[in-house]
Amino acid sequence: MKQFITVIGIAVIVTLIAMTLLSEQSRSSRQDELERAVSGAVKQTVKATHADGQTDITSNKEMVAHFVNVVSNNIKSDGDISVKVLGVDYQDGLLDVKVSETFKYLNGKEKTIEVRKCAIYE
Asked: Measured between alpha carbons, how far is 15 from 4 in angstroms, rounded to an integer?
């Protein structure tokens, strides 16, 4: 009986450690994905505002819409995305955004990660 309780105790501890490691890996991979997606989308959007004859961006709203479209296409993970525009100027090629992603861990707890990126066309 002692051995059975010991084995159950060890199994519970191993399960808790595994869930902790999986949760940390999940957060880390989501953070990396969000940073790459936002960084690439900001660069691509700012570059699109000054592309010779290749742009459809003629207002600040279109610039933000282009950014949101690129970000949503680049993020493959499951989560709620929120975009806050801190500054935008399509004529000068300025875009400053904060993107938040809210997701759930395996145990049901929610976590929010944020990335802020700013780019100016040179």
From this structure: 16
Classified as helix, coil or strand, 76 is coil
Average pLDDT over residues 79-88: 92
Question: What are 15's strand-pairing partners?
Answer: none
Closest CA to 69 of 87, 57, 53, 52: 57
Q: How far apart are CA 96 and CA 26, in angstroms?
A: 27
Q: How far apart are CA 8 and CA 3, in angstroms?
A: 9
Q: Is the pTM of this model over 0.85?
A: no
CB 88 within 8 Å of CB 96 = yes
Alpha helix segments (H runs only) across the chain: 2-49, 60-74
- Confidence class for position 53, pLDDT limits 50, 70, 90: low
